[in-house]
Known about the structure:
By secondary structure, the protein is α+β, with helices and mostly antiparallel strands.
Amino acid sequence: MSYELFIGLRYTRSRQRTRVISFISAVSVVCIALGMTALITVLSVMNGFQREIRSRILSVASHVQVSAAGGKLADWRRVEEVARRNPQVVAAAPYVTGQGLLTNGPSVRGVFVRGVLPQEEERVAELGAHMRHGNLSDLKPGDYGVILGRELAFALGVSPGDRVVMVAPQGQVTPAGVLPRLRQLTVVGIFQVDHYEYDSGLALMHIEDAQRLFRFDSAVSGVRLRLKDLFEARAVGAEITRALGPGYFATDWSRLNATFFRAVEIEKRMMFLIVLLIIVVAAFNIVSSLMMAVKDKNADIAILRTLGASPGAITRVFLIQGTMIGLFGTALGLAGGVSLALNVETVVPFLESVLGFKFLSKDVYQIAELPSELRLPDVVATATVSFLMTLAATIYPSWRAAKVNPADALRYE
């Protein structure tokens, strides 16, 4: 062991002449540990929220949608065949989309209608797992049944078995002018994915009924695809459109919800910077504690210099002392952050029971429990940034220690 390392470790363990230095060093360790714990936990919770929202969106939306210019796809069977050749595609289903008005007495709501093949739709989305009443298989061709989101059904005041009237946007030309086309539908099911956009504005019909309602004949709006790896959606969509040729285009789930996921990512970065300020405060504490330690060890520094220690050796002594403070705080922060992130779903209910109120109201956030997803890159990035900041905080005090003049330091000893 070099003498710089020996002395640096010795200074880390030794009692200072004034307890203030030891107290500030302890505060620095605690601040680093708390900052890392908070940072890892916050990033894990935001990852959990992102995962929950993504899973809820993808329970209704598909990974990739292939459509054609003009909004109608006549040769959809060829498109489905070409798409299935891609090794990433595990399921494909045609769909018809349109907009309309649903009415029930005085209640009127604008809706986004999706016509589906129930058996195929089960393979490209997980909507069947979110059915509260009925099943997708209850949609029969010719029956004009409809499945509504929970919020939409509540707004219209209907339940399974009730009838609603659909007003289609394509009017009917008569001698008296253009009249709206009306169709009576029977509510056969209700779903709830806990995503307000879908729960309040989506209605599902059988694809044949939707084709007749929106005058698609045998055409569809497009083909929905489910992939093995949802993060390959953009690349797979580009490959399929190249295989189909001009006139076709693909839209993946990340583009359909690009604004939302970009906002979540920006918020995550901002939270990282804000919570990082705790570690910045700890770094300033390390600077002050090391400066006081240098002042306290002036005589020791002078003796080492007279014994032949170089200014670089003195610098390394205090670099080692500061680094040990950073390592100890980083290790405690890693342990605390990983433990808390892995047990958020247990800790939060305990705090709610002790404090007597809920942090997350399901009526507001649509999520009853605080989700958490610990990711190794976040842990590594947090530990690396924290340690580098504490290491940088030791440079100036160590440089000042190397500048101590032995004659001046020993004059009054």
